[in-house]
Write a structure and sequence with these properties.
Elements lengths: L10 H31 L14 H12 L9 H28 L7 H30 L10 H12 L8 H25 L8 H35 L13 H12 L8 H31 L2
Helix pairs in contact: 1-3, 1-9, 3-4, 4-6, 6-7, 7-8, 7-9
The chain binds 2-acetamido-2-deoxy-beta-D-glucopyranose (2 copies).
Protein name: Mitochondrial thiamine pyrophosphate carrier 1
Family: Belongs to the mitochondrial carrier (TC 2.A.29) family.
GO molecular function: dicarboxylic acid transmembrane transporter activity
Length: about 300
C-alpha cells in the first residue's frame, strides 16, 4: 500500500474481498485444521482401542484409514460460513481501530507500536464474530463426539437445547486471547516487514505481490508462535460439554495453560503447531495478497480507471 492515504472503500467491499481471500484459502487448507484439533485434544498416554496420533502424518494416515478421507473435511461448513465475516472483520477492524488510535494519540502516521496495538484490538473484535462458529467446528472435529452430531445445524440445536443459548459463546475468553495474540503478531509484523523490504514502485503488481506474500507469511508464522498455547486451551475449553452444577476441567484461559503445563509439560502447549503453522504461515501470505488484490480491483472499478 502506498503512503498517500487512500479513500476507504465501503464495508461491503471489504466483506467481499475478505470472503474471496478466506474461502480460497480454506478449501485447500482445511484438512490441516482437522489434524491440528485432533492433536490438540489428545491428552495422556495411548489408550487401547483408541487411535493415538504420533504427529501430523500419523494422524492423517489413521484418519484416512480408519474413518475415511471425508473426515478431513468434516465441519468445514462452519468455517466457510464464518470466513467472510471473519476476514472482513479482521481487516475492517484493523482499519477502523487504526484511525481511532491515531486520533486518540494525536499522531497521523502509523508506528510499530500502533500497528501492534491496532492488530491486537482488531483480534479482540474478531473473536466476537468467530466464537460460535469455532465452537460448532470443534465439536464436529472431535472424534469422541462425532456420533453425537449430524452436521452444523444439529450441533447448534443440541447445544442450545442441552447447554443453553449462552453456551454458544463458550470459550469467548480464550478465543479473545488467541485472536489478540495472533493479530498483534500478524499486523505488527506486516508493518515491520513492509518497512524493511525494498519499496514497491508505484503500480508494480509483481513487487506488491512479492512483498505482501513475504510480509503476510512472516506475520502468520509470528502470530502462530504467539498464539498456539491459547489455541490448545481454547480447543479443550470448547470441546467440553457444559454440565450444570459441575465445574469444567478447563475453564479460564490462563489457569488452563497452567493445568496443561502441569499435567502434560510445556511442550503440550505447542500441540498441533506443525499443521497450524503450515496452514497459517502461507495462509497469512495468501490472505494479504488476495485481500490487497481484490481491494485494488474494487478501487479501480469505483474510480472507473
Ligand atoms: C491496518 O490498519 C492500519 C491503520 O489504519 C493501516 O495503515 C494498515 O495498512 C492496515 N494493515 C493492513 C495489513 O491492511
Ligand atoms: C471432548 O469432550 C467430550 C465430551 O465432553 C469427551 O467425551 C471427549 O473425550 C473430549 N475429547 C477429547 C479428545 O478430550
Amino acid at each position: 500500500m502506498s503512503d498517500t492515504p487512500q479513500k476507504p472503500l465501503p464495508f461491503v467491499y471489504q466483506f467481499a474481498a475478505g470472503a474471496v481471500a478466506g474461502v480460497s484459502e480454506i478449501l485447500v487448507m482445511y484438512p490441516l485444521d482437522v489434524l491440528k484439533t485432533r492433536i490438540q485434544l489428545q491428552t495422556g498416554p495411548p489408550v487401547p482401542g483408541v487411535d493415538h496420533y504420533n504427529g501430523m502424518f500419523d494422524c492423517f494416515r489413521k484418519i484416512v484409514k480408519n474413518e475415511g478421507a471425508s473426515r478431513l473435511y468434516r465441519g468445514i461448513s462452519a468455517p466457510i460460513l464464518m470466513e467472510a465475516p471473519k476476514r472482513a472483520t479482521k481487516f475492517a477492524a484493523n482499519d477502523s481501530w487504526g484511525a481511532f488510535y491515531r486520533n486518540l494519540f494525536g499522531v497521523d502516521k502509523q508506528t510499530q507500536g500502533l500497528a501492534t496495538l491496532t492488530g491486537a484490538t482488531a483480534g479482540a473484535t474478531e473473536a466476537f464474530v468467530v466464537v460460535p462458529f469455532e465452537l460448532v467446528k470443534i465439536r464436529l472435529q472431535d472424534k469422541a463426539q462425532a456420533h453425537k452430531y449430524n452436521g452444523m445445524f444439529d450441533v447448534v440445536k443440541k447445544i442450545v437445547a442441552t447447554e443453553g443459548p449462552l453456551a454458544m459463546y463458550n470459550g469467548l475468553e480464550s478465543t479473545m486471547w488467541r485472536h489478540i495474540l495472533w493479530n498483534a503478531g500478524y499486523f505488527g509484523c506486516i508493518f515491520q516487514v513492509r518497512a524493511q523490504l525494498p519499496a514497491v514502485e508505484p503500480g508494480n503488481k509483481n513487487q506488491q505481490t512479492r512483498n505482501d506474500l513475504i510480509a503476510g507469511t512472516i506475520g502468520g508464522i509470528t502470530g502462530t508462535i504467539l498464539n498456539t498455547p491459547m489455541d490448545v486451551v481454547k480447543s479443550r475449553i470448547q470441546n467440553t460439554t457444559k454440565v450444570p452444577g459441575q465445574v469444567a476441567k478447563y475453564n479460564w484461559a490462563w489457569p488452563a495453560l497452567g493445568t496443561v503445563m502441569k499435567e502434560e509439560g510445556f511442550a503440550a502447549l505447542y500441540k498441533g503447531f506443525t499443521p497450524k503453522v503450515l496452514r497459517l504461515g502461507p495462509g497469512g501470505g495468501i490472505l494479504l495478497v488476495v485481500y490487497t488484490g481484490v481491494m485494488d480491483f474494487f478501487r479501480k472499478m469505483r474510480d472507473g480507471e
